[in-house]
Design a protein that fits this description.
Length: 453
């Protein structure tokens, strides 16, 4: 096992990794920007190194500075967390070139799965079903031809994309040209590459993902599914496991497909294969080559600590010694974001004048926030995650509602009320919801209702 690991991230994920290191007897080294001088992750780590000014490009995205911080503190490995450089092949390669173990996949795997076009081609070769659409990057004329061939609606998606950026839904042919231009512009601004591909927009679909762990030598452990269908503008808000739409037979099929993909890649570390699930079947949409924000629901169902497993795999200790992904009970996660419902859920940085997370049986809170903490305007708006476990789904829904009612957060607007609305909604309670749930229920959810002017 490693003696010392650099955590190349901030906020809640950096806190999560620091705690995993502490439990494994590993010294952790945090990095922080000047905006994060009073951050919890810098306090919890054994050492902390100031990495640069607030702008992410000059701090958390500064590869030479991060590698130098690891080298000067005699770290043996670098854990990238999620976001920032977690899926950056250049960063993984820079770590390896400096003889630092990268706690994640090989650079080659990141490159293949980070390019959505190459990823789909790899999945086809592995026998994994993919959404009908373009075989490679598509021009506007290609998109028009596909609209005629496979029909509308279509999704235009950035080939280098992620996080909901560079995506446009096209319902009518006369919208295609404008939507294509806007998607290209957003992709170029977000990823430095405006390449697009086209997919059939699957209606009434669910977003279901399979958690995997690979040992880098072809060994793969699948850990069940998570349902991430409660989304707003392609951003996940609520996740649960197991999915109400997946039975044991379908789970086995989806896990087998995920395992084939990972065996093809000789995948190393934690990852997630994301699928759209319809009445006709399931279809691969992308792979996240990192730990996911929603990983705690899988941990609660399987008993596998994914952050610690990542470190063990990177250190050459192999996969957890379990024979199958036996799922126990039901878990739900809600993301608490500092966002203002009255302003279209724009990020709302500011100081938490009161912050009292919920407690009690079956409740877990992953956060870097504390009362008096100032949420900076430079990074994502995540305040923390409320995760609950119970013996069955109705009990888990009830427990989450209780936890959200118990949560006290003041000083900034948050998504707490929206999460409570979701828990109370008939469609969510029944488990019969799709990725269109929030849009369809907008008029019924108080948190989404327009504010009178």
């Amino acid at each position: 096992m490693f003696d010392r690991v650099l955590i190349a991230n901030r906020g809640e994920v950096a806190v999560r990794i620091a705690r995993a290191c502490r439990e494994l007897g590993i010294e952790s080294v945090a990095v922080y920007s000047t905006a994060d001088r009073d951050s919890m992750h810098a306090e919890l780590a054994d050492r902390a190194v100031q990495i640069g000014p607030p702008a992410a490009a000059q701090s958390y995205l500064n590869i030479p500075a991060l590698v130098a911080a690891a080298e000067t503190t005699a770290c043996e490995a670098v854990h990238p967390g999620w976001g920032f450089l977690a899926e950056n092949a250049e960063f993984a390669r820079a770590c390896e070139d400096s003889e630092l173990a990268f706690v994640g996949p090989r650079p080659e795997s990141i490159e293949v799965m980070g390019d959505k076009v190459r990823a789909k081609a790899t999945m086809r070769e592995a026998g994994v079903p993919v959404v009908p659409g373009s075989v490679g990057e598509a021009s506007l004329e290609d998109a028009r031809d596909l609209a005629d061939e496979i029909g509308l609606p279509l999704l235009l998606k950035a080939s280098a994309g992620g996080g909901g950026k560079g995506i446009r839904l096209v319902n009518h042919a006369d919208e295609l040209a404008d939507a294509f231009g806007m998607a290209v512009a957003e992709a170029e601004a977000s990823f430095g590459h405006g390449g697009m591909y086209v997919e059939k927009a699957l209606e009434d679909a669910r977003h279901v993902e399979i958690q995997v762990l690979g040992d880098g030598e072809g060994g793969v452990l699948t850990l069940g599914e998570r349902d991430c269908s409660v989304q707003r503008r392609h951003q996940k808000l609520v996740e649960e496991a197991p999915s109400p739409a997946v039975d044991a037979g379908l789970r086995a099929e989806m896990e087998a497909a995920a395992a084939r993909a990972c065996e093809t890649l000789r995948y190393r570390g934690a990852g997630t294969l994301e699928f759209l699930l319809t009445d006709e079947g399931f279809y691969f949409i992308e792979m996240n080559t990192r730990l996911q924000v929603e990983h705690p629901v899988t941990e609660l169902l399987t008993g596998v600590d994914l952050a610690r497993a990542q470190l063990r795999v990177a250190a050459g200790e192999g996969l957890p010694a379990i024979s199958s992904s036996e799922l126990r009970g039901h878990a739900i996660e809600v993301r608490l974001n500092a966002e203002d419902p009255a302003r279209g859920f724009l990020p709302a940085p500011g100081t938490l004048t009161r912050f009292r997370p919920p407690l009690g049986p079956g409740v877990r809170v992953d956060t870097h926030a504390y009362e008096g903490y100032t949420i900076p305007p430079f990074y994502d708006s995540l305040v923390g995650k409320i995760i609950v476990w119970a013996e069955d789904r109705p009990a888990a829904v009830g427990r989450m509602l209780r936890a959200l009612q118990e949560l006290e957060v003041e000083g900034v607007p948050t998504t707490r009320e929206l999460a409570m609305d979701v828990m109370r909604h008939e469609s969510f309670a029944s488990g019969q919801y799709t990725t269109g749930f929030l849009a369809e229920a907008e008029d019924e959810l108080a948190a989404l209702a327009p504010v009178p002017t």
